[in-house]
């Protein structure tokens, strides 16, 4: 960790953590779009539209143009979905970080700093699923600024959450991450988290075979 230091969130960190969180999510929008483009359902739909446009116009150029226009609209829409997710989070839990994470029971928010600059973050909170409350804490909002990645910061932040949960008698740490967040999946799997469920966040996501993966870490020696 060397020059890095993990401490509890303070109000002066507000803008920095919101920016790191936003960038960390929005950088996955292109991968999300590529996933949709590679989906067989997308290929079938585009082929059908191309066929109908050609049947109506008898012009290959027109049919190709319709497909190209749809691709452009779809790309913008897909990016919009990621932006809407960020906007919602910034307005909800990330809108009042102190209230959501520091004043609530068994919750916390940490930042990692380098020479007083905030370069990463993570939170622990009671899971929304009532069946998991009292058993598990949820790890949320993990993000490390790009220039500081690959130095073990997310591992240190994850260990911080595990220790926090253990000290409060919880048996598990749970979390969810999307299928295109590959670095996060490697971090969690490398630390012993097990993938326990894959679920689509919406009907459209299900059609496009887009999943959120849910992970569980069993705390050794928990009470
Ligand atoms: C996921 C993320 C937090 C990882 O942060 P990090 O500080 O770079 O990760 P670490 O340096 O602690 O790496 C931990 C392990 O994962 C591996 N890893 C991290 N990023 C990786 C990548 N892009 N590709 C492959 N392996 C990767 C590291 O090699 C390391 O394994 P090792 O100890 O065996 O070498 C960071 O990439 C990030 O902020 N991403 C955007 C936001 C995000 O997706 N957050 C997750 C929300 S659930």
What does this structure look like?
It is built from 8 helices and 7 strands. The protein is α+β, with helices and mostly antiparallel strands and 223 residues long. The protein has 2 domains: 4-11 and 98-218, 3-Layer(aba) Sandwich (Aminopeptidase); 29-89, no CATH class. Strands 1-2-3-4-5-7-6 form a 7-stranded mixed sheet. Helix 2 (29-38) crosses helix 4 (60-91). The longest helix is centred in the middle third of the chain and has 32 residues, at 60-91. It is elongated. The protein binds coenzyme A. Coenzyme A binds at residues 24, 142-144, 149-155, 177, 181, 183-184, 186-187, 190.
List keywords for this structure.
single chain; 223 residues; alpha+beta; Aminopeptidase; seven-stranded mixed sheet; 7 strands; elongated; binds coenzyme A
- Estimate the mean pLDDT confidence: 94
Major sheet: arrangement of strands:
1-2-3-4-5-7-6
| Integer count of domains | 2
Task: Give helix % range.
Answer: 40-55%
Strand content: 15-25%
Number of strands: 7
CATH architectural label of the largest domain: 3-Layer(aba) Sandwich
Radius of gyration: 21 Å
Q: Spell out which ligands are present.
A: coenzyme A
Summarize the structure.
The chain has 223 residues and is an alpha+beta fold. It is 48% helix and 22% strand. It folds into 2 domains: 4-11 and 98-218, Gcn5-related N-acetyltransferase (GNAT) (Aminopeptidase), CATH 3.40.630; 29-89, no CATH class.
């Amino acid at each position: 960790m060397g020059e890095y230091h993990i401490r509890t969130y303070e109000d002066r960190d507000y803008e920095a953590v919101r920016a790191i969180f936003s960038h960390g999510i929005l950088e996955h929008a292109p991968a999300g779009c590529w996933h949709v483009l590679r989906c067989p359902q997308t290929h079938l739909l585009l082929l059908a539209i191309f066929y109908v446009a050609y049947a109506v116009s008898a012009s290959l150029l027109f049919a190709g143009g319709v497909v190209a226009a749809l691709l452009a609209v779809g790309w913008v829409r897909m990016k919009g979905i990621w932006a809407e997710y960020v906007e919602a989070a910034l307005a909800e839990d990330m809108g009042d970080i102190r209230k959501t994470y520091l004043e609530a029971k068994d919750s916390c928010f940490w930042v990692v700093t380098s020479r007083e600059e905030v370069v990463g973050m993570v939170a622990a909170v009671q899971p929304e699923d009532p069946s998991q409350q009292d058993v598990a804490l949820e790890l949320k909002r993990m993000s490390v600024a790009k220039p500081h990645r690959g130095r073990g910061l997310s591992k240190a932040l994850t260990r911080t959450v595990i220790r926090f949960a253990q000290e409060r008698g919880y048996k598990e740490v749970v979390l969810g991450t999307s299928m295109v967040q590959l670095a996060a999946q490697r971090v969690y799997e490398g630390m012993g988290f097990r993938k326990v469920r894959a679920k689509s966040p919406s009907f459209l996501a299900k059609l496009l075979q887009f999943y959120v993966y849910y992970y569980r870490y069993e705390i050794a020696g928990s009470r």
